[in-house]
TrEMBL record:
Keyword flag Transport: yes
Gene3D superfamilies (UniProt xref): MetI-like
CDD domains, per database record: TM_PBP2
Organism: Thermaerobacillus caldiproteolyticus
Lineage: Bacteria, Bacillati, Bacillota, Bacilli, Bacillales
Protein's name according to its UniProt entry: Polar amino acid transport system permease protein
Stored InterPro entries: AA_ABC_transptr_permease_3TM (IPR010065), ArtM/GltK/GlnP/TcyL/YhdX-like (IPR043429), MetI-like (IPR000515), MetI-like_sf (IPR035906)
Length: 218
């Protein structure tokens, strides 16, 4: 079987455009998702039921339904209510962010609750306020523990942004599908796309190991 490198060469500029969008979308989603996720995570630890309950259901919904379904709901349902010409890229960014917020909220909550409660008691008995104890004792330890799941979240976002191809957001997978559709060839476009995703996720997990080593021995 011949392997048509010319197809890859022809599509190289598009794959490059696509990978830039994939990276950009993942960065936007991890930032927006973290801000929203932090708020949700903190709210979920509230003692007030009317604050906690809706947030619990937000998390339940976004973790308990497929991202593909959420993306279609956003793109075909929500966005047309707000814009006359919804952009698939914006819809993808929004659904990735909303989805990621639910996971990040749990990362924050689990990170904070994983710190032994003796730490809070000790800090309080030294005369710190609750906020000071959080700021100087709990959060520095919790943040360290959040690094691995957080990097993992970023890796998941890179891979899951490929669902955007379904609504024609021109990220990496979209161009793979385009090349496949034009030439009816499977191996060339999809192996190339797989290789690029692998390159992205492997370099991220390398970075993760580096960060873990750097912060675990202090
Ligand atoms: N791909 C799965 C889904 O379709 C999981 C999504 C996980 N998302 C995340 N941000 N960790 O629901």
């Amino acid at each position: 079987m011949d392997f048509r490198f010319d197809i890859i060469k022809e599509y190289a500029p598009f794959f490059l455009q696509g990978v830039l969008l994939t990276i950009g979308l993942s960065i936007i989603a991890i930032i927006a998702g973290s801000i929203l996720g932090l708020a949700i995570g903190l709210g979920k630890m509230s003692t007030k039921r009317f604050v906690r309950l809706p947030l619990e259901w937000y998390i339940n919904f976004f973790r308990g339904t497929p991202l593909l379904v959420q993306m279609l709901l956003v793109h075909l349902g929500l966005m047309p209510l707000l814009f006359s010409q919804p952009s698939a890229t914006v819809s993808l960014a929004v659904s990735l962010s909303l989805n990621s917020a639910a996971y990040v909220a749990e990362i924050f909550r689990a990170g904070i609750q994983s710190i032994d409660k003796g730490q809070m008691e000790a800090a309080r008995s030294l005369g710190m306020t609750h906020t000071q104890a959080m700021r100087y004792v709990i959060l520095p330890q919790a943040l360290k523990r959040m690094i691995p799941p957080f990097t993992n979240e970023f890796i998941v976002l890179i891979k899951d942004s490929s669902l955007g191809a379904v609504i024609a957001a021109p990220e990496l997978m979209y161009w793979g599908k385009a090349a496949q559709g034009q030439y009816y060839r499977v191996w060339e476009p999809y192996l190339t796309v797989a290789f690029i995703y692998l390159l992205l996720t492997l370099s991220l997990s390398k970075l993760l190991h580096y960060l873990e080593r750097k912060y675990s021995n202090q």
